[in-house]
Amino acid sequence: MTTIRESDFIQSIADALQFISYYHPRDYIQALSAAYEAEESPAARDAMAQILYNSRLCAEGRRPICQDTGAVVVFLRVGMEVRWDTQRGLQALVDEGVRRAYRHPDNVLRASIVSPPIGARQNTGDNTPAVVHVELVPGDRVEVRLAAKGGGSENKARFAVLNPNADLVDWVLKTVQGLGAGWCPPGMLGIGIGGSAEKAMLLAKEALLAPIDIHELKARGPADPIEALRLELFDKVNALGIGAQGLGGQTTVLDVKIRTYPTHAASLPVALIPNCAATRHLEFVLDGSGPVQLEPPRLTDWPAIIWTPDSTARRVNLDRVTRAEIADWRVGERLLLSGRLLTGRDAAHQRLAELLARGEALPGGLDLTNRLIYYVGPVDPVRDEVVGPAGPTTATRMDGFTEALLDQGLIGMIGKAERGSEAIAAIKRHGAVYLIAVGGAAYLVSKAIRSARLVAFEDLGMEAIREFEVCDMPVTVAVDSRGESIHQTGPDAWRGRIPGITPART
Ligand SMILES: O=C(O)C[C@H](O)C(=O)O
After folding, report:
1. Which residues line the pocket of ligand 1, CB cutoff 6 A?
2. Highest taxon of the source (predicted)?
3. CA 130 / ligand 1 centre spacing (Å)
4. Single pTM value for the model
5. Which of 242, 319, 330, 390 could cross-link 339 (Cys pair, CB 3.0–4.6 Å)?
6. Predicted pLDDT of residue 498
7. Mean pLDDT calculated for residue range 448-473
8. Domains of the chain
């Protein structure tokens, strides 16, 4: 009989969450480095370089890889011979570990969980509660697998119950094409096949916890139909040409993970959950001897990439920029922004829209004339930081608010991923622009921020409206004032080109 002490369990959860907030898994770094070397699309290659450099900076600085430090998901396999030295339940113990990790003074993480999920949606302040799954198994150990899952990639989870004879590959390809870039590729696809509706989803999520090994599988060849399916999906998804950040390129996924379970003769449940570039997961075992001991990776595991802004990029003074000036910017063009930017994301947009609908003044003396807004929810600063990691959030969610804010004089937005057709039409109509920063390069982006000032809605926490002063913040024009979108032209240009088996260019 093994005894697991409450304090060891809580400390292990907290330490593991801190660890994965700043150390990418080694297998991800290796796979992304290989994809970076093979990538021929300049835009996708640049995005990968930013993600890799950001990852190294985070490992050195012990600060989060992404401003979205995730929702915590824990899978526990508890041996039936384990005794727990605690009065609390497993959910409470996990939540205590989450609280400790997310409020760690040396590396504070972003609290992203809101409760209740509809209505007030108030931030719980410490990223609790976690989502906990428990299985009782034979033995006297506790196996812990945990992840800090980003909201952008979780938003792209999809599920269907297909007919047993349906073409599963076709469903996956159509589904991935419909996801856009909000899940921050290149990442992984977790696919769950079989069981029931909820079992398929759990299989997909668990599949993402396995290490990246598709290249070993490619080298040795598939041993069963599921391995063959992984290889087929890996090549076919990459051939879609979506590429890093949806900019068009040869690598969209670094692996496709599949888990299966027997199912009903009438059904073929299938779940797909993507994981973003900020993949964060870890597994460890507790055997009663104390808390987990985690060994930091070696910095030599990271490629020697030092990303610097493109010297030919256009320099923009945000304090003097005009609608006439942005009319010259062309889709795909690199910019370096300096000056003052407003920030705001989902909850702030909702409130602004409500105020405007009631004909009321904007808060904090906010004037949107000739301003740009950055869709971001930053991590709180520590030590001498003015702001913590502050990468872009998915712009598509702000589409419904775009026209109303453009009507107020806003001339530009900065985010990540594609815009919908209505937002693009509004951008064109107003002669505005949409710019993108690299999702998953949040610490690198934050290095360009010189000051941060609260403007409105302090109660929204990370979703409050702030004003940042930036210096040489690197962005790319994703929708220009003529309504041309890089997320349409990029993937079109790279469809069909897979690393290693690239057809001759036409
Ligand atoms: O919440 C965020 O900061 C980002 C989110 O994960 C997203 O990808 O849209």
Report:
1. 67-68, 150-152, 182, 184, 377, 393-394, 439
2. Bacteria
3. 18
4. 0.95
5. 319
6. 63
7. 97
8. 1-150+298-306 (no CATH), 151-277 (no CATH), 314-491 (3.20.130.10)
